[in-house]
Amino acid sequence: MGFEEYRARRRKPLLPKRLTERLPSPSMRLLSVVFAALFLPVAAPEAQAQRRTAPPSRPTNVIYFVADGFGPASSTFAREYVHATTGRRSLAFDPYLVGTLQTWATNSRVTDSAAGGTALATGHKSYNGAIAVDTTGRALATLLEAAQDRGMATGVVVTSRITHATPASFTAHVGSRAEEDEIARQQMRLAPDVLMGGGLRHFLPPDVAPGRRRDGLNLLDSLRAKGFTVATDRAAYDRATRAPFVGLLAADHLAYEVDRDPAREPSLAEMTEKALGMLNGRSPRGFFLMVEASRIDHAGHANDAAGHLHDILAYERAFRVALDFQRRHPGTLVVATADHETGGLTLGRNLDGVGRYFWHPQTLTRQRVSYDRLFPALRTAIQTDTTGASAIAVLAEQMGISDLSDAERTGLVAALRRQPGRVPGLVTEVVARRAAIQWTTGAHTAVDVNVYASGPGADRFRGNRPNDAMGTTLARLLGLDLDALTRRLRQTHPVYTRGGAE
Questions:
Q1: N or C terminus: which one in the chain shows less Cβ crowding within 10 Å?
Q2: 137-155, pLDDT tens digit by residue?
Q3: What is the four-CA torsion angle of 468, 473, 479, 483, rounded to 10 degrees?
Q4: What is the model's pTM?
């Protein structure tokens, strides 16, 4: 029987028309019941129970991860390192890969974190440097503001300054990302329930270390007056148990994960767990938490392979914390993406003009510090020992590199003496040759970035889309009216002067 004949037969009524016309109405009802009982499938008790306990189709809580500078090659990079060192074949977010994002800004095919963050936070693309404003400088409502306006608890956790581009894009409106004092002032006025990260210098006046505010305001005093617990060191952070809470644990960015002193700074996973504990149950309408793994990007800019790697692994541990919370609270959506890729990382490269079919992730187990710690140590070493022997010893101790070729040693010592600006590039090449990796830039690239999602509404993030679709999709899932809030904001916010990217 062919397909067309089969389809025609399937369209025929189950009972002859003449029979159904002769049956009185009660008989027809009885026949229908008998037919349903005999032929229609009945769900097993287990399936019925699953339907009764299935999570809602819309989330109550949202945990929104932004892994700054985390491109597809970075994911492979970290996964293969984990496999080489532990035998584990996947990262925590791998099973939840659902799509990709196009990251272009309105004025460039290569975005910066401000334009990228604005798209992710507001559902609108803008120019490089813009912080939650459109291309004419008018304010755009953010997901966090709309969630707070609706009565949800809100929080931001980052490893950068809290005033940096991505967290700013969720909590402030300025024409230029460089206006961090103003961003801090707006964050203080918005007052999310939880703020954790670095950037203390932008909340204090110059006469209170490490303050740099030019207007003389002490924003921490203002937050305390609003009832916030404020922590500026690890001990105070550990004592805090309830929101509202602000933890600003460094004057600038928090340390790279490879350098982090646990006695001084919590990890991204610890901060995520603490924020979830503070936000959960604070509002009957749920919570919105944005978590940025900020320093993945900074290490990409520096072409610091091990710095990049360890901050990715710190992000993965925070993602695991979110998944554990979600298992206990099925109404939670965990969604993760990046604002852009940084560094143009590639795994495998030409060596001495020949393409090689390998790379060596285990090489990076030898690096003990980030470039932030390495280069000052090299500069100090060359000043105290101009032969370069001490600097070479530092490289061996901190990077695990004791097999320099004569050309590598000569070039590095000469640069340390006379051209210190060349040292980062030389060290990067020494590391990259041994790992057989390559960086193409010290800036961002235009490659698409991955999207991961788990929980109610996760299917809405499938496919390849522009990055502003993240903002609009989350707003629809939460029932937030960003356009209405934008109209209200524009009644009180000025039109901002356009700024540039960093």
A1: N
A2: 999 999 999 999 999 999 9
A3: 20
A4: 0.88
Question: Looking at residue 458, what is its pLDDT?
Answer: 97
Position 500 scores a pLDDT of: 58
3-state SS class at 494 = coil
pLDDT at residue 46 is higher than 90: no
Can you read off the two tokens belonging to residue 481?
A: 């009216």
What angle is formed at CA 260 by the lines to CA 254 and CA 261, rounded to 5 degrees?
A: 115
Dump pLDDT digits (tens) for 105-120: 999 999 999 999 999 9
> Residues 28-45: what's their mean pLDDT?
44
Task: Mention every residue, 6+ apart, whose C-beta is less than 8 A from residue 3.
Answer: none
Give the side-chain half-sphere CA count within 13 A for 487.
3
- 113 counts as catalytic: yes
- Is 247 in a helix, a strand, or coil? strand
pLDDT score recorded for residue 50? 41
> Across the strands, what pairs with 454?
334
DSSP assignment of 63-86? EEEEETB--HHHHHHHHHHHHHHH
Select which of 113, 160, 283, 454 is catalytic: 113
How many Å separate Cα 258 from the centre of its chain?
18
Percent of the chain with pLDDT over 90: 86
Q: Which two tokens stand for residue 165?
A: 């581009």
For residues 253-264, give the mean pLDDT.
Answer: 98
| Crossing angle of the two packed helices 305-328 and 295-302, in degrees rounded to 10 | 160
pLDDT digits (tens, 9 = 90+) for 421-478: 999 999 999 999 999 999 999 999 999 999 999 999 999 999 999 999 999 999 999 9
How many other CB atoms sit within 10 Å of the CB of residue 12? 9
Q: How far from each other are the two terminal CA atoms of the chain, in whole angstroms? A: 68
C-alpha to C-alpha distance for 232 and 329, rounded to whole angstroms: 31
In one-letter notation, the amino acid at residue 479 is: G
- Cα gap 471→486, rounded to integer Å: 14
Cβ 444 vs Cβ 342: under 8 Å: yes
Between helix 423-435 and helix 406-418 the angle, nearest 10°, is: 160
Measuring CA to CA, which residue among 357, 339, 327, 235 is closest to residue 294?
339
Q: What are phi and psi of 450, to 5 degrees?
A: -80, 155
Alpha carbon distance 428, 437 (integer Å): 10
What distance in Å separates the CA atoms of residue 9 and residue 5, rounded to the nearest whole number? 6
